Amino acid sequence: FTAAEETARDNEETAWANAAPARAIANLRQQRNRLLAETDWMANSDVTMSDDWKTYRQALRDITSGLDTVAKVNEKEFPTKPGA
Q1: pTM for the full model?
Q2: Among residues 48, 53, 50, 12, which one has the least CA distance to residue 35?
């Protein structure tokens, strides 16, 4: 590599590393969205959702709050479904 190519490659690697938290949160959101979609039917007007399910769904929506590092994302656990 030339010096310019080496610098360009270093910049690419730095950008990739800096974007790691965003990629990890995006993956977590994708999993969270799937779990929410599985219970969306409970939010229909003709269904009475129990407080346990409301709490579960709110915990899913709040799961990404305060996550700013890959380590925090990896430590996060999904809430347990009511009745599970």
Answers
A1: 0.79
A2: 53
